[in-house]
Design goal:
The structure is a single chain. By secondary structure, the protein is mostly helical. Among the domains are: about 40 residues, no CATH class; about 90 residues, Cyclin-like (Cyclin A, domain 1, Orthogonal Bundle); about 140 residues, Cyclin A, domain 1 (Orthogonal Bundle), CATH 1.10.472.10. The protein contains 18 helices and no strands. Helix 11 runs antiparallel to helix 12. The protein is globular and about 100 Å long. About 25% of the residues are buried.
């Protein structure tokens, strides 16, 4: 420590000797420092923008103000240094080092230009479609980022690939032993869950996913019919966790089931179900495809609502649950528009012309991968479900779509059995 002590003593001695010499300079330096601080404050205020200037939503990410001028720190520092040097030269005779030379303005401009060029190149590479203007129905949505118009075609293609990976077997409950889950028991369960779903005010996507989880689990595991209510409630809870922002608690499910099971039962069933499906919950839903198809054909709100009604009717029918979501949605999209348009069709109107207007094959095949001929069987099945609503005891779906906020579509004349039967007969010719 001796060498540090000697150094400190030397420094202290020099300070005392020079203190008398610097007394006069200290006053002047203090004045200069005050002026420098004031000038720096002005420069910073100028650099940060005038009063009331606000950043955009992504301003912190892009470091851009609403004026679209890049906030680069180098020019600000250079401006501060220049101002400080000016004050010192005008107020003091003390020699100072010259300020650092300011870089040419073109350097900053080139940096910005290079970024912009790179962004443009990336945008060109990421365009998902546009090579065929005939099928481009999304060009008008380029200003709306929520439509992801540049990628929606690729997204739908991925959906069609994904739905093939988690198929539901046809009639997977048909040959189960007595006392286990049957198609009839499944239908009663789905109808009850639909009431619970409506009571909790949950999204349509949540219920679609619920039915999908139930079917995936039941086709792998042979369960007692007494477990069905627990399985359905657990599937609805899992779907809520996946789709909803706020979810009902387990106590709520225990309550609506009249304490048929406990919270611990739900926890254990949740572990069983998620393990049985290998923790893979994601799957495109028929409602996702219907929204896309309604956008493509520019369906009205009434047509889209009738399409949703047809989709929800399929849940209780075990014979339809094996159909791909994209296929069911395509059938519902056509049938909903056909039933609403059939009232305006005269006997002299060619049915082929009606079909071509509602489902132009080239255009719709490009967007859906289905021709009308491929949809005939599915359209007939959906039509029979609609006809059967007059005699079925499971009316939860019909009750919901009889509400005024859904255009009372279930009570619409186009959904009456006689009308639907006539329209289907004409379509099959």
């Amino acid at each position: 420590m001796s060498h540090y002590s000697a150094l400190l003593r030397s420094h202290y001695t020099k300070t005392i000797v020079s203190s008398s010499t610097n007394n006069n300079e200290n006053d002047e330096n203090a004045t200069i420092k005050n002026l420098i601080c004031k000038q720096i404050s002005k420069v910073q205020q100028t650099s940060n923008g005038s009063k009331g200037t606000m950043r955009g939503i992504l301003g912190e990410v892009g470091n851009m103000t609403l004026s679209n001028k890049p906030m680069i720190s180098k020019p600000k520092l250079i401006q501060q240094q220049t101002a400080i040097a000016t004050i010192i030269e005008s107020k003091s005779s003390i020699s100072v080092l010259p300020p650092a030379p300011s870089p040419p303005a073109t350097i900053v401009e080139n940096e910005v230009e290079e970024i912009m060029i790179d962004d443009d190149d990336d945008d060109d590479d990421d365009l998902a479609f546009g090579s065929n203007d005939e099928f481009d129905c999304d060009s008008g949505d380029s200003h709306n980022i929520t439509t992801v118009s540049e990628f929606v075609v690729d997204i739908c293609k991925y959906w069609r690939e994904l739905e093939q990976k988690t198929p539901i077997r046809q009639n997977f409950l048909a040959h189960r032993r007595e006392g286990t889950a049957s198609p009839q028991n499944r239908a009663v369960l789905i109808d009850w869950l639909y009431q619970v779903h409506d009571r909790f005010k949950l999204h349509s996507d949540t219920f679609h996913m619920t039915v999908h989880l139930i079917d995936r689990f039941l086709q792998k595991v042979d369960v007692s019919k007494h477990e069905l209510q627990l399985i359905g409630s657990t599937a609805l809870l899992m779907a809520c966790k996946y789709e909803e922002m706020t979810i009902p608690g387990m106590n709520d499910f225990v309550y609506v089931s009249d304490s048929a099971f406990s919270k611990d039962d739900m926890k254990e069933m949740e572990r069983r179900m998620i393990s049985a499906i290998s923790y893979d919950l994601g799957r495109p839903l028929s409602i996702n495809f219907l929204r896309r198809y309604s956008k493509i054909v520019q369906a009205t709100d009434v047509e889209h609502t009738l399409g949703k009604y047809l989709l929800d009717l399929t849940f209780t029918d075990h014979s339809i649950c094996h159909l791909l979501p994209s296929y069911i949605a395509a059938c519902a999209s056509f049938l909903s528009r056909y039933l609403l348009a059939y009232k305006r069709v005269t006997t002299s109107t060619s049915i082929a012309m009606i079909i071509e207007n509602l489902w132009p094959n080239n255009f719709m095949f490009h967007h859906t991968n289905y021709t009308f001929e491929q949809l005939r069987t599915g359209i007939e099945q959906l039509g029979q479900l609609l006809i059967g609503q007059d005699t079925t005891k499971l009316r939860s779906v019909q009750k919901k779509f009889s509400q005024s906020n859904l255009f009372s579509i279930a009570q619409h004349s186009c959904c009456k059995s006689a009308y639907v039967q006539t329209a289907l007969t004409r379509l099959s010719k």
